[in-house]
Task: inverse folding
């Protein structure tokens, strides 16, 4: 079995897609994504409080459903300079990592959170107060509750 | 020593059922050891790596029921990486090769495969009971084998497993001639259920006592199922989205009125908030109520239900019930023995659904309470001292304050005195979980007073090695100690190596133990398996020159008579 930082089942005869990922602070560094140093705070901890995965999932989907009665989890995503936007269902992602991966694929460029860069597009979001913020500073679940739309900024502008 | 023939002694031993007692009588003399060996029916193995199946079969050739536990308890909270171990396959293979007439298999936190289930179903003609708790690695195909091949199956009880659901026809694999089902619990399956097959199965199972459905069984199906099985004692409701379907609702209400035997109710996995009222007619007989997954049901509806449940002995509920709701429980449920209150808000976002007041109310109102698991946002020493005074009969006391290191919210003091009062008053305390701001002092109290303590869970607590030492030196009956994110290091770990021979296991993660310390321990105690779980670095620890002082991410050690296990994955290093 290769030594990699990502997880792979060793002997199970079936892959379980409902199993929650382990703490996403052990990020797979082979993806071309960069996070500022506080990555351990970003993703919601999967091991505290000490409740079983099934209850954790139930509570997560409950909060998402409750939130759904006010606003949909589909948010508009715009790339700066491109007039036509896309729509993305944020409930399908488990965290910032998977969101960035998906956006990078969707817009065919490398999208990151955090530090401004002359090469990369930086992801920002509009929160429920109407303010534009840098994506990635708050825990994922909290982000889902407050995000209203996404904008991928051009490298220099941010 | 023996004044009676062996058969008489054996007959007497039949009345001795607890594992501890049977272990004791086997130590009396050689003759009793031999008689006990051949007559032991139920074998319990708390750690599957402490012994091998071959040695088990040599000692107990005639057992009928086997209970096996695999992963350590903290695996329930994602602290043990996938693939660590706990594979049941070698056990099933060894049992299949032998001539053991296995009738019951109970597994907890183990990895089970479809191949294993198929082998199990084909190897034991009298197989009656399969209970899987928190297991993973199999799919509904494995269940199909069990259904097809186990002619005498009575119990299929799947509790909180991760099962790959192939949208099974597994339910239709029970033969039409099969009528002996007593327990069927598939609440943890996520996929669609063949409702026709389910209804036919239930209709031809006159002995069915326990039925727990998954979320794919809607209201109208529930009504039909209940109508053809009014003898059910234990019901797990799947889905209960009442789309104002009045016909199904009426059918359900009619069925519920006939449910005079119902004693236990659970489920409501997908539930419209007002649906509980249909069950009010049966509440007065309920002894067990588990609504810990009914996240959508409002506190007020929970309270209305509980007001009818005067005979309740066991209650598992979410904190949406609130302190007010717990006061209703305290005044209504005078027979209550076990209470679990689970959190709904994982971020501590200021939603103080239950507080120390709820806990105090319960302790004052429920004189028979002996087990509690309580998640809350805040606690005080005064409340814990009151609880200890009200309830000196606790056997299990688990308190989880959601925010680590949180002090008494009134005095800002650590909660040492509160937990100290609990261990001092509760002389029969066997299991304890502590939380909040705690110094070494609380462990001094635990070591001094918790003489019967067998399992202790520590998180984000303590100041120095002294804390852990107080516990190791004081708690003579300790069996399982699990510690995370606490400043205990090598000095505590190595102080008394022989202590670990009296315990089942020790878990330490995100503590201060170093690789050097663990290596020294492994050298001193060859009868221990000392496992280092380091997912991030794999075995780069060895290459790094500072290994002696390098902190170990996760340590799991356990006594064993069969040495190092051979099935460990690369990220587990057994010293």
Result:
């Amino acid at each position: 079995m290769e030594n990699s930082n990502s997880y792979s089942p060793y002997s199970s005869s079936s892959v379980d897609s409902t199993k929650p990922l382990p703490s996403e602070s052990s990020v797979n560094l082979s993806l071309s994504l960069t996070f500022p140093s506080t990555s351990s705070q970003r993703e919601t901890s999967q091991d505290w409080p000490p409740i079983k995965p099934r209850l954790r999932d139930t509570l997560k989907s409950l909060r998402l459903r409750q939130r759904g009665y006010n606003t949909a989890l589909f948010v508009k995503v715009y790339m700066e300079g491109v007039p036509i936007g896309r729509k993305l269902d944020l409930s399908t992602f488990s965290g910032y990592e998977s969101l960035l991966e998906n956006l990078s694929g969707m817009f065919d460029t490398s999208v990151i959170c955090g530090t401004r860069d002359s090469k990369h597009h930086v992801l920002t979001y509009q929160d429920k107060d109407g303010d534009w913020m840098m994506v990635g500073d708050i825990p994922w679940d909290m982000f889902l509750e407050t995000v209203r739309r996404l904008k991928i900024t051009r490298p220099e502008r941010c | 020593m023996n004044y009676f023939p062996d058969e008489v002694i054996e007959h007497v031993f039949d009345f001795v059922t607890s594992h501890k007692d049977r272990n004791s009588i086997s130590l009396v003399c050689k003759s009793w050891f031999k008689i006990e060996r051949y007559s032991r029916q139920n074998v319990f193995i708390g750690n599957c790596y402490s012994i091998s199946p071959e040695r088990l079969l040599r000692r107990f050739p005639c057992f009928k029921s086997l209970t096996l536990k695999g992963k350590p308890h903290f695996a329930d909270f994602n602290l043990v990486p996938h693939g660590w171990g706990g594979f049941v396959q070698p056990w099933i293979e060894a049992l299949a090769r032998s001539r053991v007439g296995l009738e019951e298999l109970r597994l907890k936190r183990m990895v089970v495969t479809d191949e294993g289930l198929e082998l199990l179903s084909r190897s034991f003609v009298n197989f009656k009971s399969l209970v899987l708790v928190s297991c993973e690695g199999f799919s509904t195909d494995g269940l199909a084998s069990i259904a097809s091949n186990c002619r005498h199956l009575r119990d299929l009880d799947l509790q909180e497993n991760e099962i790959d659901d192939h949208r099974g026809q597994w339910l239709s694999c029970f033969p039409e001639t099969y009528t002996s089902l007593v327990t069927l619990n598939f609440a943890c399956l996520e996929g669609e259920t063949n409702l026709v097959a389910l209804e036919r199965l239930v209709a031809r199972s006159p002995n069915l006592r326990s039925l727990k459905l998954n979320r794919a069984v809607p209201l109208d199906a529930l009504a039909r199922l209940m109508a053809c099985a009014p003898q059910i004692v234990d019901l797990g409701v799947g889905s209960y989205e009442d789309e104002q379907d009045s016909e199904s609702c009426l059918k359900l209400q009619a069925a519920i009125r006939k449910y005079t035997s119902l004693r236990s109710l659970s489920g409501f996995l997908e539930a419209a908030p007002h649906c509980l009222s249909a069950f009010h007619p049966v509440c007065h007989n309920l002894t067990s109520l588990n609504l810990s997954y009914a996240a959508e049901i409002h506190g007020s509806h929970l309270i209305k239900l509980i007001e009818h449940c005067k005979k309740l002995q066991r209650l598992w509920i979410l904190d949406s019930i609130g302190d007010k709701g717990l006061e209703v429980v305290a005044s209504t449920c005078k027979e209550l023995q076990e209470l679990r209150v689970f959190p709904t808000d994982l971020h501590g976002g200021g939603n103080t659904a239950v507080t120390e007041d709820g806990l105090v109310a319960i302790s004052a109102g429920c004189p028979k309470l002996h087990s509690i698991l309580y998640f809350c946002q805040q606690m005080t020493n005064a409340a814990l001292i009151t609880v200890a005074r009200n309830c000196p009969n606790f056997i299990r006391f688990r308190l989880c304050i959601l925010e680590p290191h949180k002090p008494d919210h009134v005095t800002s003091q650590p909660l040492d005195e509160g937990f100290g009062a609990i261990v001092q008053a509760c002389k029969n305390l066997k299991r304890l979980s502590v939380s909040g701001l705690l110094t070494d002092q609380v462990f001094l109290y635990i070591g001094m007073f918790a003489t019967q303590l067998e399992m202790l869970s520590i998180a984000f607590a303590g100041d120095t090695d002294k804390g852990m030492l107080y516990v190791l030196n004081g708690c003579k009956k300790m069996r399982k100690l699990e510690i995370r994110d606490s400043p205990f290091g090598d000095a505590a770990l190595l102080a008394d190596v022989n202590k670990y021979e009296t315990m089942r296991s020790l878990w330490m993660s995100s503590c201060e133990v170093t690789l050097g310390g663990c290596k020294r321990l492994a050298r001193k105690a060859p009868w221990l398996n000392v496992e280092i779980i380091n997912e991030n670095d794999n075995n780069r620890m060895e290459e790094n020159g500072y290994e002696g002082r390098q902190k170990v991410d996760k340590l799991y050690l356990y006594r064993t008579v069969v040495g190092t296990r051979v099935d460990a994955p690369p990220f587990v290093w057994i010293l």
User: Anything to note?
Assistant: Chain B touches chain A through 46 residues (CB under 8 Å). The mean pLDDT of chain B is 92. Chain B has 20 helices and 23 strands. Residues 246-257 of chain B form the longest helix (12 residues).
